[in-house]
From TrEMBL:
GO BP term, example: phage shock
Keywords, in A-Z order: Membrane, Transmembrane, Transmembrane helix
KW Transmembrane helix (keyword) present: yes
Organism: Alteraurantiacibacter aestuarii
Pfam families assigned to the protein according to its UniProt record, in alphabetical order: PspB
Top-rank taxon: Bacteria
InterPro entries in UniProt: Phageshock_PspB (IPR009554)
Annotated transmembrane regions: 6-23
Protein name (database record): Envelope stress response membrane protein PspB
Keyword Membrane belongs to the record: yes
Length: 98
């Protein structure tokens, strides 16, 4: 009588359990559409905040000629390389989705 319960558990239950957790493991590493839209919103917010900081720094430098910023500048090539790479990746991603 024990074989009636053990054989289906080993033949059906164990592979199902293993495949279930393999599927969970594979999908946990991928980004969802909600995550992607949140990242896009955060990226747009960061760009707007950067523009605001540029405006504030421009106003402060107009009042004080000795003012020097300690942050990443938008007009320096070395500072724009990672941002340009990110924008290219986003454009490529949006191009493949459409």
């Amino acid at each position: 009588m024990e074989e009636v319960f053990i054989i289906p558990v080993v033949v059906i239950g164990l592979p199902w359990l293993i495949l279930h957790y393999i599927t969970k493991w594979k999908t946990s590493g991928s980004i969802t559409s909600d995550d992607e839209s949140l990242l896009d919103e955060l990226y747009q917010l960061a760009k707007r905040l950067d523009e605001r900081m540029d405006t504030v720094e421009r106003l402060v430098s107009a009042d004080n000629p000795d003012f020097k910023t300690a942050r990443i500048m938008h007009d320096r090539e070395i500072d724009n390389a990672p941002l340009r790479e990110l924008e290219e990746l986003l454009a490529e991603k949006k191009g493949t989705q459409k």
